[in-house]
């Protein structure tokens, strides 16, 4: 199986950005680990990060032509604002899992609403980088 992991805005700063909230691993550390996990399970994992909403929409569209079985997405702050990313995920009709490193429900109320959750197969929050791995393992099964 082929899984696409998408990281939204500011996640390129992982490891430096508010490590008490988001952990000390860099995005490269996380992506490398996910590729190893996917390979161990006999599949592949592509990763993508952008700070730009339109680029994220384009990447989701592109997945339609790539035999992607599942998307794992942490849309960062766009989770709480982006009808466009919601529509892109609905449009390509590839099943997806929503991941957040932090427990968004413990935080500001503006982080409690997601434009993606009701379309997602599942949502993982608050487990740090392990949330991506758990989502990937589910998607690979
Ligand atoms: C986040 C939570 C969002 O509210 C925030 O804007 C992020 C990261 C998380 O992984 O915990 O950028 O998606």
Automatic annotation (TrEMBL):
Catalyzes a trans-dehydration via an enolate intermediate. Pathway: Metabolic intermediate biosynthesis; chorismate biosynthesis; chorismate from D-erythrose 4-phosphate and phosphoenolpyruvate: step 3/7. SUPFAM superfamilies: Type II 3-dehydroquinate dehydratase. Substrate binds at residues 74, 80, 87, 101-102, 111. The keyword Iron does not apply. The active site is at residues 22, 100. Its EC number is 4.2.1.10. The record marks 17 as: Transition state stabilizer. Keywords: Amino-acid biosynthesis, Aromatic amino acid biosynthesis, Lyase. The lineage of its organism: Bacteria, Pseudomonadati, Pseudomonadota, Betaproteobacteria, Burkholderiales. This is 3-dehydroquinate dehydratase.
């Amino acid at each position: 199986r082929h899984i696409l992991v998408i990281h939204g805005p500011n996640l390129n700063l992982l490891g430096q950005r508010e490590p008490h909230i988001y952990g000390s691993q860099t995005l490269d550390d996380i992506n490398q680990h996910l590729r190893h996990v996917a390979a161990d399970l006999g599949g592949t994992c592509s990763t993508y990060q952008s700070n730009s909403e339109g680029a994220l929409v384009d990447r989701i569209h592109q997945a339609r032509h790539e035999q992607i079985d599942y998307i794992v997405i942490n849309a960062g702050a766009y989770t709480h604002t982006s009808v466009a990313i919601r529509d892109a995920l609905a449009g390509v009709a590839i099943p997806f899992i929503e991941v957040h490193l932090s427990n968004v429900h413990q935080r500001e109320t503006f982080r409690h609403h997601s434009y993606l959750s009701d379309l997602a197969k599942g949502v993982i929050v608050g487990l740090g980088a392990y949330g991506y791995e758990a989502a990937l393992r589910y998607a690979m099964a």
